[in-house]
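Ticket #4471: structure output looks truncated?

Reporter: J.K.
Steps to reproduce: submitted the chain below (458 residues) through the standard prediction queue, then opened the result file.
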Amino acid sequence: MGALFDLTLMGQTRRSCQDAIGAIFLAINKKAKYVLDADIAKCFDRINHEQLLRKLNTYPTLRKQILAWLKAGVMDGKELFPTSEGTPQGGVISPLLANIALHGMENEINKLADTFDMKRPDGTQLSKRDKRQSVSLIRYADDFVILHEDITIVQRCQEFISEWLKDMGLELKPSKTRLAHTLEEYNQEKPGFDFLGFNIRQFKAGKYTSGKVRGKLLGFKTIITPSKKSQKRHYKKVAETIEKHKGKSPAILIRNLNPIIRGWCNYFSTVVSQKVFERLWHLTVWKLIKWGTKRHRNKGRKFIVSKYFQKIGDNNWVFATKQEGKNPMRLLQHSDTTISRYVKVKDDASPCNGDLIYWSTRMGKHPEMPKRTALLLKKQKGKCAQCGLFFKEGDVIELDHIIPKSKGGKNEYKNWQLLHRHCHDEKTRNDGSIDRKLSHKPIRIPENYRWENDLLVT
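Returned output as attached by the reporter:
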């Protein structure tokens, strides 16, 4: 069932929120656009069951089972609340069913784009392909945005989506749906928008910081950061956790805080987050000092800092336990998180399409690929270590020892590399290891020789 409804970012295996943000960045990084930032009102609660089952179009046994799930209701204590519409909130299958309900939105917008009057500077109409590519719809679960440089196009898409949702018993939520522009203020709406916890906005920039297209200055730069709501929500959770453990030991506090900080920072580690991380860590330090003063009410701040904070390396503000002869348990710092660019999954890539090389290179693992080969593909970024070309589907990939075993090389991970078969043959021929594999030394023919009566004469 999941494979049939595999077109949106949430429904596709190995897709994530970062893929949705990556798609938005690619849509606006070269051109400022208007945006419909939409949210569906009570999406999980209002889905029409009959329309959902009709769209699912499955065989009777599965249809009956899904209808039973939809009607299962919610048990609160000993009281049962039946479900007459929508999907059970928090259920394992609810996101999939909601995704099925919204399936087809992208195709309908593409069909609508074909009818738009879009012209080139010379007055000729754009092709259907160019029209479809100019309208960007990025959806994750029940949150979606529509992007285009013409506000009338965005407004027509909004009207169309509002009508299209009615068939499923859904509607756009006015309080959370807004029209804005990525660079300029529009209709008293501030530039930019929030999506999946990120803030996406463009800022005017000079020649040294502006984005460029083919060497031409754009006059703006696209910046994606954690949204202010996400920052406040995260700090509130950190502060509540510290407050909740005011009577606990530092080790217990660290054990409870680390997963919160690690998870949040990893989620935003692919965008411009360094300054945000530093600010949040600064606020966390002050909260920890306050936590310490409540434990030692008659002591000053200097005592609290010296008791609970240590100098490790060049960092003077490491909140850690003091353990003699052992590595201290330390609190993760937001600002220590490495910012790394996220590589968006290819639009047409799916683990189900048999592209083992792509997914092994990306993930470092695949159920149909030997673990050793998958790890090396990821390490080598999908390239042959000999010729530097990318491995392609159908290539014969062989494991090679960088230092041949016949010359003392060990059979271990750091001495392994992947090569094309023909590259492997070439390396083996040139590194001299082929001679060691022979049971006898090859006959060396002297430089000066001649043949006489089928005999070699020197």
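Triage note (M.O.): checked the attachment and the full token line is present. The chain has three domains: 17-226, 229-319, 356-431.
Status: closed, working as intended.
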